[in-house]
Write a structure and sequence with these properties.
This protein is an alpha+beta fold. The chain has helices at 7-31, 48-56, 66-73, 120-126, 142-149, 163-168; strands at residues 46-47, 81-84, 87-90, 111-115, 136-139, 157-161, 174-177, 180-183, 191-192. It has 2 domains: 7-90, RNA 2'-phosphotransferase, Tpt1/KptA family, N-terminal domain (Arc Repressor Mutant, subunit A); 111-196, ADP-ribosylation fold, CATH 3.20.170. It has 6 helices and 9 strands, in the order αβααβββαβαβαβββ.
């Protein structure tokens, strides 16, 4: 007697497979393409066929298909990869030199950056710098920034970036995905300490006419 997996169990297995492949693709497309025989173009794109060949050379991935790559792109949460015209790329997180695709964009009034508490004083003094990554990564909301900060500390601190002011002063912002912006650096004058986060803008109610 044997049991077949239900739809939920199959979906969980498929998701775990996609998450494992996502980690491998991050290594290939963000950090070590040359170690896997992959050449990225200036914007980080790699041909799908070459990428699949590289993946299939890894133990446990001999049967990888284009559908597996699509499953990685469709993983829930923050979008990390893009497939287009027979090519694939990581949208952000690179330590290898790549250039953002497209022109700089006008950012929202504020963006956010999550970091470890011990880094706050240095950042507020010297500004945000990319470190080992090619770009500084900024989040669209404080909650998203906190999730990023949890990778660095169990008690992350969220800093507010005066993005619109920085843009008007000449800092170039690139939108990597729906909720991630990239910049080369953010000077300290455009950063607010945690307690200095501005309030969300309030839309005023329309004026009411006085009763007769």
């Amino acid at each position: 007697m044997y049991h077949t997996l239900g739809k939920d169990a199959m979906a969980a297995l498929d998701r775990r497979r996609a998450e494992r492949l996502s980690r491998l693709l991050s290594l290939i497309l963000r950090h070590r393409p040359e170690a896997f025989g992959i050449s990225l173009d200036p914007h980080g794109w790699a041909p799908v066929e070459a990428l699949l060949e590289a993946v299939r050379r890894q133990r446990g991935w001999e049967d990888a298909t284009a559908a597996d790559l699509e499953a990685v792109v469709q993983l829930p949460g923050r979008r990390r990869f893009e497939l287009r015209d027979g090519r694939m790329r990581a949208l952000y997180g690179h330590s290898v030199p790549v250039q953002p695709e497209g022109a700089p964009q006008r950012p929202p009034e504020w963006l956010y950056h999550g970091t470890a508490p011990e880094r706050v004083a240095v950042i507020l003094s010297e500004g945000l710098r990319p470190g080992a990554r090619r770009f500084v990564h900024l989040s669209l909301t404080p909650l998203q920034a906190r999730e990023v900060g949890l990778r660095h500390s169990p008690q992350p601190v969220v800093l507010t970036v005066l993005a619109r002011r920085a843009h008007e002063a000449g800092v170039a912002f690139y939108r990597a995905s729906g909720d991630v912006y990239l910049v080369d650096a953010v000077p300290p004058q455009f950063l607010l300490p945690p307690e200095g986060r501005p309030r969300e803008p309030v839309t005023p109610e329309p004026a009411r006419s006085a009763p007769p």
